[in-house]
Every structure is written in structure tokens, then in C-alpha cells.
């Protein structure tokens, strides 16, 4: 039986340069990485930095990427768990993993903690299964207790991601908890172009490839979709024995990503 990992810990090498668009979100989070890099000027001013920040946005808009960028910019360790993993665990396991993670992060502070899919345990009470004292609620309570228990000198910032802010329990958003919100939108045309540029960096492109046009033809695509598009195009090129990706392959990959999204939508219904 494989031992499930308790939580992930790493040193992020992602920076804000790897994140295209999302200018407002980056601006908000700049302050956090600045503080983590050197808390002393903020301390001297008596400024209290937010402890918890909620990253809200549709799937694939870069929530995880942005959280890693904050850690990378500040050059601090990045601790992460996905809250959806706790749903099927034995009672008490989620809470003890949360405790372990916060303990390790505090030991290595300054640090970032990232909790993905917080909505899977942070739903308003009464709407979930188990009606009250189930694993989700214990895990959530542990997170909230840990955040309430931070000492002023413990420079740990908790970022949590959700694409369902509407279902979250209000207790999460109380002062001292996730009292700051950062919204990530689907990329607009210039942002799509910037994302395509980032992900096409390592790909040999034929002369006819027009990323400006491709950005115009990918309305509604998330950053993850665009990354996927470039990769699909490179795979298609490989399959056809080509040494470059041309515009026709890009457009075929675009259709593939659109159809993949439709298929997923139909299957989940
Ligand atoms: P989910 O809600 O599905 O967990 P997410 O919002 O956390 O998604 P990420 O995992 O950060 O999204 O994004 C997936 C990948 O898509 C990233 O690793 C990155 O390669 C690409 N991506 C998404 N948004 C951007 C962006 N703004 N700039 C550059 N790349 C992006």
C-alpha cells in the first residue's frame, strides 16, 4: 500500500514574469512577496499583513501558478495541499496533516502555504454531506484554528484557491482569516497573446504562425487551455514528423481543445 504524501513542500522558481496578464492580482500580491522577503520595514510601521488570501477564479486561470510566483518572488518555501484529498480520508487524518503542515511552515518561516480547492471542505455548513461533524468540517476547523493561532512574529501567509467562492462558509472570511480576496478572470485578448508567447517560448514555430490571430481566435480559453493548445500543436507536429509547428497545426490544436472542453462538459452533466 502506497503511503499518501502528507503535503508538498518545495522551493518555487516561478516568478511574476511567468504569469501573463492578471495585472491587478499581481499588484495585490506584490505586497505579500515584498513583506515575506523582508518583514522588518512593515513591522516598524506597525502594518499588519493579511494572513489569508482567497484566490478566486475559473479553473485554469493561474491560481496555483500565482501562489507559486509569490513564493518564488519572495524566495520562501512553498507548502501545499489540495483540500479535495481530505474528502475521502479517515476522520482526523485531514486535521493532523493540516497541523503538521502549519508546524513545518512556521518552523521554516517566512513561508507560503497554499490550499487548493478550499471549497471542497469550506462549504457553508448544512449544504454538505455528513451534516456537521464530518471529516471536512474537522479539517476546515483545524485550518481556521491554525490561522487564528498565528503569533505576530510568525510570517506565514496562507493562500487558498477556489472556483466556487459562492459556496464558501462565511466563517472563512472573518478578519484574521481569509479576509483578503483576489479575483482572477479568464484572460482577455492581450493576456491570451501574452500567455501564448510564454508557452511558445521553447517551441520551434514556422514563419506563418500568427499568435496575435490565435489570441483573437481563442475567446473563452483559460491559461491552462492555451498551454494545452500549444502542447497539442507540438504533439501533432511530432506525429506528422515535422520539425516546426505551423499555423494549421495551431488551429487544429485549438479545435481539439475546444472539443475536449465540450466533451468534458457533456460527461459531467
Ligand atoms: P485549477 O482551478 O484547475 O486548479 P488554477 O487556476 O490553479 O487551476 P493553474 O494550475 O495555475 O490554474 O494553471 C494551469 C497552467 O496553465 C499553469 O501551470 C500555466 O502553465 C498555465 N497558465 C494559467 N494561467 C496562466 C497565466 N496567466 N500565465 C501563464 N500561464 C498560465
Automatic annotation (TrEMBL):
Location of the protein in the cell: Cell membrane; Membrane
GO terms, biological process: cell division; protein catabolic process; proteolysis
Keywords for this protein: ATP-binding, Cell cycle, Cell division, Cell membrane, Hydrolase, Membrane, Metal-binding, Metalloprotease, Nucleotide-binding, Protease, Transmembrane, Transmembrane helix, Zinc
Parent-protein start and end of this portion: 172 to 440 of 638
Molecular functions (GO terms): ATP binding; ATP hydrolysis activity; ATP-dependent peptidase activity; metalloendopeptidase activity; zinc ion binding
Residue positions binding ATP: 57-64
Subunit structure of this chain's protein: Homohexamer.
First-listed, main subcellular location of the protein, grouped into a coarse class: membrane
Name of this protein: ATP-dependent zinc metalloprotease FtsH
Amino acid at each position: 500500500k502506497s503511503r499518501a504524501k502528507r503535503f508538498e513542500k518545495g522551493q518555487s522558481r516561478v516568478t511574476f514574469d511567468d504569469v501573463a496578464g492578471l495585472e491587478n492580482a499581481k499588484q495585490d500580491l506584490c505586497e505579500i512577496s515584498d513583506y515575506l522577503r523582508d518583514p522588518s520595514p512593515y513591522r516598524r510601521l506597525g502594518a499588519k499583513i493579511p494572513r489569508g488570501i482567497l484566490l478566486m477564479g475559473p479553473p485554469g486561470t493561474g491560481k496555483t501558478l500565482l501562489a507559486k510566483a509569490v513564493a518564488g518572488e519572495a524566495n520562501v518555501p512553498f507548502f501545499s495541499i489540495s483540500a479535495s484529498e481530505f474528502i475521502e480520508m479517515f476522520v482526523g487524518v485531514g486535521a493532523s496533516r493540516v497541523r503538521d503542515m502549519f508546524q513545518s511552515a512556521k518552523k521554516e518561516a517566512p513561508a507560503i502555504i497554499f490550499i487548493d480547492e478550499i471549497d471542497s471542505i469550506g462549504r457553508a455548513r448544512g449544504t454538505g454531506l455528513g451534516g456537521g461533524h464530518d471529516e471536512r468540517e474537522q479539517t476546515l476547523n483545524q485550518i481556521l484554528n491554525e490561522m487564528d493561532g498565528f503569533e505576530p512574529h510568525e510570517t506565514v501567509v496562507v493562500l487558498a484557491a477556489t472556483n466556487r467562492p459562492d459556496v464558501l462558509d462565511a466563517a472563512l472570511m472573518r478578519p484574521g482569516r481569509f479576509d483578503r480576496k483576489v479575483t482572477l478572470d479568464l484572460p482577455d485578448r492581450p493576456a491570451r497573446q501574452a500567455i501564448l508567447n510564454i508557452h511558445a517560448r521553447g517551441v520551434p514555430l514556422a514563419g506563418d504562425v500568427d499568435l496575435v490571430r490565435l489570441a483573437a481566435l481563442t475567446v473563452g480559453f483559460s491559461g491552462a487551455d492555451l498551454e494545452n493548445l500549444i502542447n497539442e500543436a507540438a504533439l501533432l507536429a511530432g506525429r506528422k514528423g515535422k520539425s516546426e509547428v505551423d499555423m494549421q497545426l495551431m488551429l487544429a490544436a485549438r479545435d481539439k481543445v475546444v472539443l475536449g472542453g465540450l466533451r468534458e462538459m457533456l460527461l459531467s452533466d
